[in-house]
Amino acid sequence: MNIDTQWDNSQPIYRQLRDRVVAMILEGVLKEGDPLPSVRTVAAEFRLNPLTVLKGYQQLVDERLVEKRRGRGMYVSDGAAAALRIDERRRFLESDWPRLHATIARLGLSVEELLQAPAEPRPPQPAASDGPPSDHKEQDDGHDH
């Protein structure tokens, strides 16, 4: 399992671990019936307290996204991806969409403009006055300026 190892202070690590496993299920990286790495493996690989990993995994069990199989570990539950998609769609429509819709209306964007817009953000472009970074320093020509 390839989990991003950057943890931030915005929420507890166990919650971030849970969210990353959820993202992997939604993206198809983890499929129904796939085993999750053991608590011990994740704790050792990411230098986390095993109780933190267990708490993140337990949230997934409580949400019925993962099932414990005695003596064998934890596995992605049947229907986990579909359940997550339903929940994510509901959350998007209730919380993200109203803000997004208001922004679209405020800017007067048309459906055509939205469909033609790039799906990925463009990398920031340097301002027109910014030239490419210079590797050489100004040379002293010996004159006072």
Strand order of the largest sheet: 1-2
Number of strands: 2
Work out the count of structural domains. 1
How does the helix and strand content classify structurally? mainly alpha
Per DSSP, what share of the residues sits in E-state strands of 2 or more residues? Answer: 5-15%
The helix count comes to 5
For the largest beta-sheet, the strand count, sense and barrel status come to: 2 strands, antiparallel
The general outline is: elongated
- End-to-end C-alpha gap: 62 Å
Order of helices and strands: HHHEEHH
Question: What would a concise description of this structure say?
Answer:
With 145 residues, this protein is mainly alpha-helical. The chain has helices at 13-26, 39-45, 50-62, 80-107, 111-116; strands at 66-69, 73-76.
Give structural notes.
- It is a single chain.
- It is elongated, with a radius of gyration of 24 Å.
- The chain has helices at residues 13-26, 39-45, 50-62, 80-107, 111-116, and strands spanning 66-69, 73-76.
- The model has no long low-confidence stretch (mean pLDDT 86).
- It has a single domain (8-113), classed as Winged helix-like DNA-binding domain superfamily/Winged helix DNA-binding domain (Arc Repressor Mutant, subunit A, Orthogonal Bundle), CATH 1.10.10.10.
- It has five helices and two strands; from the N terminus they run αααββαα.
- It is mainly alpha-helical and 145 residues long.
- α1 packs across α3 (50-62) and α2 (39-45) packs across α3 (50-62).
